[in-house]
Write a structure and sequence with these properties.
Blueprint: H1 2-20, E1 51-57, H2 69-83, E2 91-97, H3 108-115, H4 122-130, E3 134-138, H5 139-144, E4 157-159, H6 162-171, E5 175-178
Parallel strand pairs: 1-2, 1-5, 2-3, 3-4
């Protein structure tokens, strides 16, 4: 009998431990950007500074039914810093999209017409924009890939080029992260 009680306890404890070691989304982007909690990191995060970052995403997934993991990284950036106590007012992010990732900014209708399925990235992109992430499409990629503004998710901006947007944002103090 005691063995059975110990087994139940061990099962409960193991399940609780495994549950506590899961990644977690939110609080900024609820359905994407799951991150691990890092307790007492040796390199402390300065929660008083502003984190201004521009993500340069040029590669999309091979499958048109997958969420672009590089776009998900933007959600991870926001969630991990907010979970760690950095005020959301100190998180400034911009996303520049070009190359094969450009198709990830299409509306569901535009994506369906071209690739036969709704855009699996639409909801993520919309949540990023709701979190004040500036989403910018390279104008050169827009023309090269025949992705007109009318077929992009509402709120996506078109720049002259990804290079131009990168320079301008870096001149405004954004730090580049190339994905």
């Amino acid at each position: 009998m005691k063995f059975q009680q110990f087994s139940v306890f061990l099962l409960f404890f193991t399940g609780f431990y495994a549950f506590s070691q899961q990644t977690q989304t939110g609080p900024i982007i609820q359905d994407y950007g799951a991150v691990w909690e890092i307790e007492n990191p040796d390199f402390a995060t300065d929660k008083s500074q502003e984190f201004k970052v521009v993500f340069d995403v040029k590669v999309g997934p091979e499958s048109d039914t997958e969420v672009n993991r590089n776009l998900n990284t933007v959600a991870r950036f926001l969630n991990m810093h907010a979970q760690h106590g950095v005020p959301t007012s100190q998180l400034k992010a911009a996303l520049i999209v070009h190359g094969t990732a450009a198709r990830n900014l299409l509306t569901d209708e535009g994506h369906q017409q071209r690739y036969g399925v709704p855009n699996p990235n639409r909801e993520l992109v919309e949540q990023l924009m709701e979190a004040n992430v500036e989403v910018i499409m390279c104008g050169q990629s827009s023309k090269t890939r025949n992705l007109p503004k009318e077929e992009l998710i509402p709120g996506v901006k078109i720049a002259l080029s990804a290079m131009t947007a990168n320079i301008q944002l870096q001149n405004q103090g954004y730090r580049p992260i190339n994905l």
